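User: Can you predict the 3D structure for this chain?
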Amino acid sequence: MAWTVAADGAVFVLDATHTLTQLAPDNLAPLAQGSPLLESAEEAPAYLLAGETQIFVGSAAISETLVLDRSDLGLVARLDHFGPMALVQGQRLFMIPLGLEEMWPTYNFEIWAYDLSDLSKMPYKVRYTGASFTDLVTDSANRRLYVLMSNILASPPHRGQNYDV
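Assistant: Here is the predicted structure, written as structure tokens:
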């Protein structure tokens, strides 16, 4: 369903049973495995991101993101939304929140940031625009957030995808 490689090279995989497994980076042998995170058998998009101390597992099946302790894969917190994520280690979790159909029926116009020091705080909107966001990644060394976006307001054939900083 999803996989990610942490900055330190650790590999994590979320399988079809919603079980998170850490794999050895050199031979992909299992190193640690958690219990199934979801009871839902529904196949739905999943999003996985590993930081220094936390792992973030977002799923459309439960419409939220689970925050796990990386050392034991135990549940630490739940975030009310899910979607593509990017991380600034030890500082912020960026998310394109999906499932906001009540406000935006078709597109993803917002990017949110969660404060990692206090995940109970409401996220704040980093970007809000007429372009639909698809994916994002951080470049911590250069302090940049790259966002893949679609220009949905343009008429065809000008509706291209581009990266924004």
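The domain at 2-129 is CATH 2.130.10.10 (Methylamine Dehydrogenase; Chain H). The first strand starts at residue 2 and ends at 5.
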